[in-house]
Write a structure and sequence with these properties.
The protein is α/β, with parallel strands linked by helices. About 50% of the residues lie in helices and about 15% in strands.
């Protein structure tokens, strides 16, 4: 039976994440301490105590989610009761792909954390330089979302960028175009349209400045060749086959759509039966319920969930 580890992306952060786990397990506390030393600021304090406005900023939330997920992963490895749980394949939603690559052993903790920090800073910088937004469209298929984008764009950038699960597609682009899409969504039969609390138009060419900065950051990062644990790429639902492909995929991810639903369908088709969502929140657990109702995801986001294992 094949097992997959899934890792959440931006938006999964919540004040208090990892606090009880770090208090109960020295292995988790050590990961947070290492992160503080690498970043030269108190990231753990931000995760455990907030404030929410700071934790929710792109520059903080990205390293915070990565480190919390890595701390939980470390507990699973170090705890005799759970050390037998291992992955054949890893996957992560957008930012979560970095955690997936770390869990697969192709990027070290230090390199992954520095990359994630630089990615967050670069995305914030690109967002500040442009006027973009994102809206989640609930209850429409790809064709209808595409039609909605054509009517709403009015020659401004607007595109479907996150194909999360049936009936949940996120559009991204210019702020005014996103506003029009939100208003027009009902006309196309959407259940609702929800503006996302993000800094800018992620996964579009508005992030090309960030992609360039990430490309530079990747030059000083060591990526190993993938070996026994495979990682599936957000951008095409294919497994990464080389270190070069991984670097290219991480850069492309910033300006291209994310095909999460296709990634999960591919894993299911390839015989993955057991899924663990490792990290804050329950986003991926919820998405899988919509992708394939019969597939159970074990959510490991709290001290209680670790104890229940």
């Amino acid at each position: 039976m094949k097992t997959a580890f899934l890792f959440p992306g931006q938006g999964a952060q919540i004040v208090g994440m990892g606090a009880k786990i770090a208090q109960s397990f020295p292995a988790a506390a050590e990961i947070f301490e290492r992160a503080n030393n690498i970043l030269s600021f108190d990231l753990s304090g931000m995760c455990f105590e907030g404030p929410a406005e700071k934790l929710n900023s792109t520059t903080i939330s990205q390293p915070a989610i990565f480190v919390t997920s890595a701390a939980i992963l470390e507990v699973l490895k170090a705890n005799p009761a759970t050390s037998g749980i291992s992955a054949d394949v890893t996957a992560g939603l957008s930012l979560g792909e970095y955690t997936a690559l770390y869990a697969a052993g192709v990027i070290s903790f230090t390199d992954a954390l520095i990359l994630v920090q630089k990615r967050g800073q670069a995305m914030q910088g690109a967002a500040d330089a442009t006027d973009g937004a994102m809206v989640s469209i609930i209850g429409l298929d790809e064709e209808k979302v595409s039609e909605l984008c054509v009517e709403a764009d009015e020659n401004e950038l607007l595109a479907a960028v996150n194909f999360n699960c049936p009936g949940q597609i996120v559009v991204s682009g210019g702020r005014a175009a996103c506003g029009r899409a939100e208003k027009l969504a009902e006309k196309y039969g959407a259940v609702k349209a929800v503006p996302l609390e993000v800094a800018g138009a992620f996964h579009t060419h508005m992030m090309s400045g960030a992609a360039e900065a990430l490309k530079q950051a990747l030059l000083s990062c060591r990526i190993s060749e993938p070996s026994e644990i495979k990682t599936i790429a957000n951008i095409n639902a294919e497994y990464y086959r080389s270190a070069k492909e991984i670097a290219e995929g991480l850069i492309k991810q910033l300006t291209h759509p994310i095909f999460w639903q296709k990634c999960m369908e591919r894993l299911l088709a390839d015989g993955v039966e057991k899924f663990y969502e490792i990290g804050p929140g329950r986003v991926l657990t919820g998405l899988m319920r919509r992708i394939n109702r019969k597939t159970k995801v074990v959510n490991i986001s709290s001290l209680q969930s670790i104890r229940e294992l």
